[in-house]
Amino acid sequence: MFGNLFQQSLKARPRVEYVSEYFFRPIAHLCVLVLLPLRVAPTWLVVFHTCLGVLASVLIAGGQLIWAAALIQIKTVLDNADGQLARASNMTSETGRYLDTEGDFIVNAALFAGLGAFTGYWGIALLAFAVFTLLLSIDFNWEYQYRTERGEGFRASPDSSRENQVVLRGLQHFYDIIFKPQDLWIRRVAEMRFAALYARHPNADARAAARLAYFDADSLLVLANLELSTQLLILGICLVLGAPIVFLWFVLLCGAVVLLLQLRRETRAVAVLRG
Question: Is the entire prediction scored with pTM above 0.90?
Fold first, then answer.
């Protein structure tokens, strides 16, 4: 029963985030077992862990780094638990998906503001926040392109006819303002890079094989393990060590890793085209 419910509650992905899969999600499942009989709505869990994340940012700004680190890890457990609870209880919703994404964005903005306030390095904190946000969007969109290239479905939308349409439209508008331009830009850049370098190859079969090599699973593995749960665990460690500035530099380093991944994708595709 325990194992079946746990497997049912997991999200299928081409590659997993190890920290989430083997640490946070098993702990989150214990929360699911407690909340499931209480019929707690997953959306309320999202609201609660969003508030915890914002509170952690206030603690960072005030120098309460240990307490902030603890709250961030609790927030991460509950952030994993909300989706697991929704899938285990068959309560997935469009409202919950949008709310979770946008709640994480608010928390991330607050955390980097707290880091800027504590360290005094506002410029680095702002740049790291921009890289952090882009990194999460690239992970989402590269997985979308990977699945699309292979004819796989990508996170089918649940029936939203019974949801509060006013709330849902508000969340959708927020997404369209903050995230949709990023999604379109990331996908367009990926396609432009492929078109500029490889699309003129005369052999259609070679081009198709090169696209599969370009939109590859290994890149997703790296990106998945730079995802939110891993990032927040590293932030917690840096806070406990009293070195939050290290986390800001780590995020900027992750941005450089993405550039290397893009170069690797292009190199793989060229190798396929050259036989």
Answer: yes
